[in-house]
Design a protein that fits this description.
The protein is of the alpha+beta class. It is built from five helices and three strands. Helix 1 crosses helix 2. It is globular and about 45 Å long.
Length: 131
């Protein structure tokens, strides 16, 4: 079996939603202390929906593929759903990652929650009630 799925290779070679949103509503940056990789997420949010998302990842191929897939999974989605996104869901959508590369997908989950936190800090009224 190939180490990486076709989907990982595709998102690594042609990452979706790469870039910066200058007037983003939420920005999150996270890093993995062990490998030194860094991921930055930008969210545009209107009426509780993620209308646009972009990322910059300085990291390994799996981190790039994970961030690309994660942006596709949350674009157009309500915040309640975006909050639920787990690194497992990202890895599954990529048809799997090798075990020792799962932490790369964790970076995507963390970058999105950090961007969401940034948004909620600025718009506390938008935070969905915990349920
Ligand atoms: Fe660091 Fe993949 S090796 S995020």
């Amino acid at each position: 079996m190939a180490l990486y799925s076709e989907k990982v290779m595709d998102h690594f070679r042609n990452p979706r939603n790469v870039g910066v949103i200058e007037d983003a509503d939420g920005v999150g940056e996270v890093g993995n202390a062990k490998c030194g990789d860094i991921m930055k997420m930008y969210l545009k949010i209107e009426n509780g929906i993620v209308t646009d998302v972009k990322f910059e990842t300085f990291g390994c191929g799996s981190a790039i593929a994970s961030s690309s897939m994660a942006t596709e999974l949350i674009k157009g989605k309500p915040l309640e759903e975006v909050e639920q996104l787990t690194n497992k869901a990202v890895a599954e959508a990529l048809d799997g990652l090798p075990d020792y590369k799962m932490h790369c997908s964790v970076l995507a989950e963390e970058a999105i929650s950090s961007a969401l936190e940034d948004y909620y800090r600025k718009h506390p009224e938008a935070r969905p009630p915990k349920g």
